[in-house]
């Protein structure tokens, strides 16, 4: 079965709800419109659904001049892209990058929805934030994503994981927040990919993605549970972490991805043998 791109997904505000698109432009720091906004606390630390699970219920809808924010029990709010202004440091894990604050109404809206003081920040120039040099080149940059421009997952790996959980309800791919979903490969084949072509775009596969408690937050209800981390810990654990999906860095910015694009694995490499690797 040939490999194909079955879904393209963007997340306008880091850790809030994403949306599927039929096509998207690849930029050096990720898909156009992906994770250019983030919430921060009073210390300037990026806030995610790890800390506030209700963030997965907030829907940011892209507009020509900003975002339209929606959340259960809240009035919608239009937020324009902020104009040039002073930069405020935003800390994403070990990185610090300057960003511009949105209008005060946006801070108040998010604070009311989450029940905590937060501010909405816009990354006007993602070229300020390099990727981890251990897994990228000096010129590689990233938006407000955790560490790398894009995340790829495969339908077959999710199906294998789902079968191993033994749950009555299948796991949703949205728990893993990928940008690109691929079909047609054997389960976990992506562990060995090093370069891929998707349509006209080529990517380096720089690092497998270690997963955190955010995957245990149900994207439809914001409730937390033991899966998929419990099953990943039994079958996909090595280096003290659990793994699902893989991180990409684009080598052809400006290319357009379209659902249905053919996918070709250009280069493979050795596969780690974690405890409980599916065979």
From TrEMBL:
Residue ranges of the TM segments: none
Residue ranges of domain MOSC in the record: 124-266
Xref: InterPro entries: MoCF_Sase_C (IPR005302), MOCOS_middle (IPR005303), Pyrv_Knase-like_insert_dom_sf (IPR011037)
Gene Ontology molecular-function annotations: catalytic activity; molybdenum ion binding; pyridoxal phosphate binding
Source species, domain of life: Bacteria
Xref: SUPFAM superfamilies: MOSC N-terminal domain-like (SSF141673), PK beta-barrel domain-like (SSF50800)
One Pfam family recorded for the sequence: MOSC
Name used for this protein in its record: Molybdenum cofactor biosysynthesis protein
């Amino acid at each position: 079965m040939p490999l194909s791109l079955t879904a393209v997904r963007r997340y306008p505000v880091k850790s809030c709800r994403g949306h599927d698109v039929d096509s998207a432009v690849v930029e050096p720091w990720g898909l156009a419109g992906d994770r250019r906004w983030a919430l921060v606390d009073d210390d300037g630390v990026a806030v995610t659904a790890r800390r506030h699970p209700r963030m997965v219920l907030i829907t940011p809808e892209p507009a020509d001049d900003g975002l339209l924010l929606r959340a259960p029990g809240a009035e919608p709010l239009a937020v324009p892209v902020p104009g040039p202004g002073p930069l405020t440091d935003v800390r994403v894990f070990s990185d610090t990058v300057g960003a511009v604050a949105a209008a005060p109404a946006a801070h108040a809206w998010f604070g009311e929805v989450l029940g905590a003081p937060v501010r909405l920040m816009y990354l006007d120039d993602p070229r300020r934030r390099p990727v981890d040099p251990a897994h990228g080149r000096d010129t590689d940059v990233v938006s407000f994503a955790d560490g790398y421009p894009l995340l790829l997952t495969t339908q077959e790996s999710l199906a294998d994981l789902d079968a191993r959980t033994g749950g009555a309800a299948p796991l949703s791919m949205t728990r893993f927040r990928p940008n690109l979903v691929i079909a047609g490969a054997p389960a976990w084949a992506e562990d060995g990919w090093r370069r891929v072509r998707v349509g006209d775009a080529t990517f380096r596969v720089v690092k497998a993605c270690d997963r955190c408690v955010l995957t245990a937050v149900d994207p439809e209800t914001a409730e937390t549970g033991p899966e998929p981390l419990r099953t990943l810990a039994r079958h996909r654990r090595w280096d003290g972490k659990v793994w699902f999906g893989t991180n990409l860095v684009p080598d052809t910015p400006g290319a357009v991805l379209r659902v249905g694009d053919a996918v070709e694995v250009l280069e493979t490499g050795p596969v780690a043998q974690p405890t409980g690797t599916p065979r």
